[in-house]
Amino acid sequence: MEDSSQVTLSDDILGRFQDLPINARVEYQGQRFVFERAMPPSGQWPLSESQLLLAGRLIYQQEKDPLDQASAS
């Protein structure tokens, strides 16, 4: 992601990674994402279309719409 100014960070901090706070959730372009994992030190990790890389080190997964989950079951 090029422009982090378009990201809204949640106030919930899960911890820190390489001195960066890990926010539990972020919002980007109207979509909500939840923290999934940190990028491995090698920096070699393919991202899916439903993932967002923040600060080059933190991977967030797009949150599923609860209505979509209910219709799938």
Low-confidence stretches: none
- Which structural category do the helix and sheet elements fall into? mainly beta
Q: Overall pLDDT, averaged? A: 86
**Number of distinct helices:** 1
> What summary fits the major beta sheet?
5 strands, antiparallel
Rg? 13 Å
The strands making up the biggest β-sheet line up spatially as 1-4-5-7-6
Instruction: For the record, give the distance between the C-alpha atoms at the N and C termini, rounded to a whole number.
Output: 33 Å
Strand content: over 45%
The H/E string reads EEEEEEEH
Plain-language structure description:
The chain has 73 residues and is mainly beta. It has one domain. The protein contains 1 helix and 7 strands. The protein has one helix spanning 66-72; strands at 7-9, 13-17, 20-23, 25-28, 31-38, 51-54, 58-62. The strands form 2 sheets. It has a 5-stranded antiparallel β-sheet, with no helix packed on it. It has a two-stranded antiparallel sheet with strand order 2-3. Strand 6 (51-54) and strand 7 (58-62) form a beta hairpin.
Structure, briefly:
It contains 1 helix and 7 strands; from the N terminus they run E-E-E-E-E-E-E-H. With 73 residues, it is mainly β. It has one domain.
For the structure shown, list the relevant keywords.
mainly beta, 1 helix, 73 residues, two-stranded antiparallel ribbon, single chain, 7 strands
SSE topology sketch:
Layout: E1 7-9, E2 13-17, E3 20-23, E4 25-28, E5 31-38, E6 51-54, E7 58-62, H1 66-72
Antiparallel strand pairs: 1-4, 2-3, 4-5, 5-7, 6-7
